[in-house]
């Protein structure tokens, strides 16, 4: 029995989230929820759909990332997303991994700020992403399995 | 009017001093941040509310700033001619020299003008007035179509 679509839009607050919001029409009319790292941002998103906050962490804080992972696991089991849509950073990476382990589809749009090289979280997700978009043409030549269609902003 | 902005986080006096000259009087308006240096020739404020900032940016013929990604993306999205002076770690203006790489990369792609030394600023300001920046490749609708088709395929 196929699970009903539920899109998890996961992105660190700031540039990552802004870029996903630019393509917000893709989730309109489909069941979705947000995960981000800034409570003020989450409150704004809550006007549209359920919006969760996880405390931001990155590679400099392994303990912080572990805490984020625990929170992401708990949110994953609560919402059971069938699609993960992310632009990074760590929160998107973790949800993408959790999603793929549970048979979800993963759509990744690497941030426009990454001009010469795909982000660390992007590089982790690329091998198993179902859709992987880059926003600079040079990157689509440098990496396999990525698509360039221009920039979201 | 050319709008000089140092951003909301940290002042950038080296840039402001390089622009604060007689020839720029009435030509440049500066947002200088939490700085103790008060320009003598150009009009200035320390901070602008977001609405005022956006309006000033929209009205400006050109922009002068540091090579911060947020500023660059904003200027390029508006096709606003931008001159950047990268912040340098040797002057304690920034934690590392990533702004130099950013400046060179965007300069090579034709999105902005860059000065790497404050002495080059007057010449670059003159160039800025003739500069037309390359437009960003707005792929938003293509990306929306691509992702939406993929999602439609899952529903089927």
What does this structure look like?
The complex is a heterodimer of chains A (153) and B (156). With 153 residues, chain A is an alpha/beta fold. Chain A has helices at 15-21, 39-45, 62-79, 90-101, 120-125, 137-142, and strands at residues 7-11, 32-36, 51-53, 83-88, 105-109, 131-134, 147-148. Chain A has a 7-stranded parallel sheet. In chain A, helix 3 packs across helix 4. The N and C termini of chain A lie far apart (38 Å). Chain B is of the alpha/beta class and 156 residues long. Chain B has helices at 13-19, 50-59, 69-77, 98-108, 121-128, 140-155; strands spanning 2-5, 28-31, 43-45, 62-65, 82-84, 113-114. A 6-stranded parallel sheet of chain B has the order 3-2-1-4-5-6, sandwiched between helices. In chain B, strand 1, helix 1 and strand 2 (28-31) form a beta-alpha-beta unit. The interface between A and B is medium-sized, with 29 and 21 residues.
Average pLDDT reading of chain A: 94
Strand content of chain B: 5-15%
Helix content of chain A: 25-40%
Element order, helices and strands of chain A? EHEHEHEHEHEHE
Main-sheet strand order of chain A equals 3-2-1-4-5-6-7
The radius of gyration computed from the alpha-carbon positions of chain A, rounded to a whole number of angstroms, is 14 Å
Classify the helix fraction of chain B into a percent range.
25-40%
Q: What class would the helix/strand composition of chain A place it in?
A: alpha/beta
Helix and strand pattern of chain B: EHEEHEHEHEHH
Keywords:
heterodimer; A: 153 residues; alpha/beta; seven-stranded parallel beta sheet; 37% helix; 20% strand; B: 156 residues; elongated
Q: Topology, please?
A:
The complex is a heterodimer of chains A (153) and B (156).
Chain A: E1 7-11, H1 15-21, E2 32-36, H2 39-45, E3 51-53, H3 62-79, E4 83-88, H4 90-101, E5 105-109, H5 120-125, E6 131-134, H6 137-142, E7 147-148
Parallel strand pairs in A: 1-2, 1-4, 2-3, 4-5, 5-6, 6-7
Chain B: E1 2-5, H1 13-19, E2 28-31, E3 43-45, H2 50-59, E4 62-65, H3 69-77, E5 82-84, H4 98-108, E6 113-114, H5 121-128, H6 140-155
Parallel strand pairs in B: 1-2, 1-4, 2-3, 4-5, 5-6
